[in-house]
Automatic annotation (TrEMBL):
CDD domains: AHBA_syn. Keywords: Aminotransferase, Pyridoxal phosphate, Transferase. Its cofactor is pyridoxal 5'-phosphate. Coiled coil: none annotated. It comes from Streptomyces indiaensis. Pfam families: DegT_DnrJ_EryC1. This is DegT/DnrJ/EryC1/StrS family aminotransferase. Gene3D superfamilies: Aspartate Aminotransferase, domain 1 (3.90.1150.10), Type I PLP-dependent aspartate aminotransferase-like (Major domain) (3.40.640.10). It comes from the Bacteria. InterPro entries: DegT/StrS_aminotransferase, PyrdxlP-dep_Trfase, PyrdxlP-dep_Trfase_major, PyrdxlP-dep_Trfase_small. Belongs to the DegT/DnrJ/EryC1 family. L-glutamine:2-deoxy-scyllo-inosose/scyllo-inosose aminotransferase subfamily. GO terms for molecular function: transaminase activity.
Amino acid sequence: MTRSFPPIPAARPVIGEPEIAAAVRVLRSGRVVQGPEVAAFEEEFSALVAGRSCVAVNSGTSALHLSLLALGIGPGDEVVVPSFSFAATANAVRMAGAEPVFADITPDTYCLDPLAASAVIGPRTAALMPVHLYGHPAPMDGLMELAARHGLALLEDACQAHGATLHGRPVGSFGAAGCFSFYPTKNMHALEGGMITTDDPRLARTLRLLRNQGMEQRYANEIVGANMRMTDVAAAVGRVQLRQLPAWTEQRRANAKVLDSRIAGVSVPHETDGARHVYHQYTVRIPGGRRDAVQRDLARQGIDSAVYYPVPIHRLRPYQDQGGPVLPETDRAAAEVLSLPVHPSLEQAELERIAGAVSDAGGER
């Protein structure tokens, strides 16, 4: 007889009564696009990024794209990025007319390795774009030094790292700009949306022009822009979520500690000294070609898991024209990583079940 297990989903996006009430309030107001809710969300999100100016847009990808454009990066330029990320990281570079150049990652945090990035900097390099992957800060000290030494712009892809810090400094406050996503499965969401952070008032103004057809005043277009505005409905939901983010982050970190202490037989996530991981994903390593079998075992027990990312960006069809850079740590991570549920709504019994199942399935065979 097959035993039935209650399912444990990889993520449980929160859309509760406060979010619904906020959305209804905005809909009833008639002010639904780029209105007072967006302005309030920008001001409130600023507290998360050391008081930087915030510019709300319609997605994390738009945040990356517009930031590159506002920084003047385009045709003829190269941007150093990790290949171990979601395709949007490189897609934004291509959409700006520039070319992504892929560098390897550090094996412990899966973030862009400053030494590997240094090795691919050339005469056309205009920027570094590290990703704070899975919610762990990238090694910003080394990357900031590298950017300063070569006169490069530094753009943070913080789409998975709301509230993460390094030596007490929040991600999104290190580079010329930082970019966040509010997709429903992120640590906080706005149904959909993105945010750009910067400490440069001129850059912030350019970003606001770019998101709104190049206009600050209606029909007074100053530059060529697009419609990448955030709706007031999304902003109202985001404001509710932002207030809950600190508690959710603490619960994610507590859940991660339980998993750390209970899982055996596989490598649990690393947290660098001085870093505050916010565990957008709780990602273990399962070497020896056993990862897929472990994932199947978990699925049979009703435990959802995911591989982020099974195919590095440089091996995706749009980027295979780069001649195949040698990225051994990236390829090894893609073959070994498995992300487990860590979201705040998990119960202690579910955490115990996850840890036990991974330990049983992941042990050496």
